[in-house]
Design brief:
By secondary structure, the protein is of the alpha/beta class. 42% of the residues lie in helices and 15% in strands. It has a six-stranded parallel beta sheet, sandwiched between helices. Strands 7-6-8-9-10-12 form a six-stranded mixed beta sheet, with helices on both faces. Strand 6, helix 9 and strand 7 form a beta-alpha-beta unit.
């Protein structure tokens, strides 16, 4: 038995189990070249002496750390928090630990985090790029680290990815509002230097134009995609003439902020102004006026992304490496026919 305060070693395990150090190594690395009886004896000895395999040493031997990194732009956003939770569940079930990097929508921080991730010998990386131009992609390619893009696809990236059909999202919202009888529209967008923000607005305007209606007024929110951003944008839109009777917000948080501005102005939802968001976060259905929204299949996006990465790490070819998830309109009480046409 090892002397007190010394770290137990493989030799200690081998001595207690009555096997060679090589046999202990085979058992620790879960190789199938020893009998089940021998494996059980070794595992019992490991438990008794308190031996813990040294992960770094094992990584040097195997070239793998069983660690995946996830890079997101804002972990305070419920969308990304749910994404991280889903990814972690699948990683853990497959024997991987998860490193989370939160860029705060800062390009320089994103670049630094990706460099740090490669220095930590990660096996693979999932990322939500801060902007359309991702700084650090070359670092990952040079390090030969498999990557999968989720939600946002940066310029010049043609690798594995999982995204939402953002054009269809915008079209779907416009069709819903037009069917209700709306003719005056507004859009509170996310940052317009993101392709997904531009695509949502393009799809929205496309359907409005097809019906011969005036284009939607567009106000750009900030990088935070926050309720405060939606609140301030809505206050500006309330000054427009004619005042919009339907507002499409770039996410649920901005939609919730917009709803507060509408109510503070003494207007009714949806009689005076209908509001639609995107994401279908949990809070959207628990508002005093439940929010109509477009459900991004978040679990599907995150699950598909991590499964693609795990397939790559296992040396398998993914069934589909570039996946577009279809949105679904969830109609609640925040949209209805405008009062003038009701």
């Amino acid at each position: 038995m090892p002397r007190r305060h010394q770290r137990p070693t493989m030799k200690d395990v081998a001595r207690l189990a009555g096997v060679s150090v090589q046999t202990v190594s085979v058992a620790v690395n879960n190789k199938e070249t020893i009998s089940e009886e021998t494996r059980e004896r070794v595992l019992a000895a490991i438990e008794e002496v308190g031996y813990r395999p040294y992960a770094v040493a094992r990584s040097l031997r195997t070239g793998a750390t069983q660690t995946i990194a996830l890079v997101v732009s804002d972990i305070t956003n419920p969308f990304f928090a749910s994404m991280a939770n889903t990814v972690e569940d699948h990683a853990h079930a497959s024997g991987y630990s998860l490193l989370l990097y939160n860029t705060h929508s800062d390009l320089e921080r994103e670049k630094n985090y990706i460099r740090m991730a490669t220095q930590r010998w990660i096996d693979g990386l999932l990322f939500v790029s801060t902007k359309d131009e991702m700084h650090g992609l070359e670092t990952l390619q040079e390090a030969n680290i498999p990557v999968v893009a989720i939600d946002r696809i940066p310029n010049n990236y043609d690798g594995p990815s999982v995204v939402l059909n953002n054009l269809k999202t915008g079209r779907m919202v416009a069709e819903h509002l037009i069917e209700l009888g709306h003719v005056n529209f507004a859009h509170i967008s996310g940052p317009m230097d993101l392709l997904l923000s531009r695509e949502r607005l393009d799809g929205f305007q496309e359907i409005i134009r097809q019906h011969g209606l005036p284009s939607a007024i567009s106000v750009c929110g900030d990088d935070s995609w926050s309720a405060e951003s939606g609140y301030q944008a809505m206050r500006a839109l309330l000054q427009a003439q004619p005042r919009p009777t339907a507002v499409f917000a770039g996410n649920d948080r901005m939609a919730i902020g917009a709803m507060r501005a509408i109510i503070e102005a003494g207007l009714r939802i949806p009689d005076d102004i209908s509001v639609v968001g995107i994401d279908d976060i949990e809070l959207s259905s628990y508002q005093i006026i439940p929010l109509t929204t477009v459900r991004q299949s978040l679990v599907d996006v995150a699950t598909t992304g991590i499964k693609i990465l795990l397939d790559i790490l296992a040396g398998q070819e993914p069934e589909q490496s570039q996946v577009v998830c279809e949105p679904k309109l969830v109609v609640r009480n925040s949209t209805g026919r405008p009062a003038a046409s009701a």
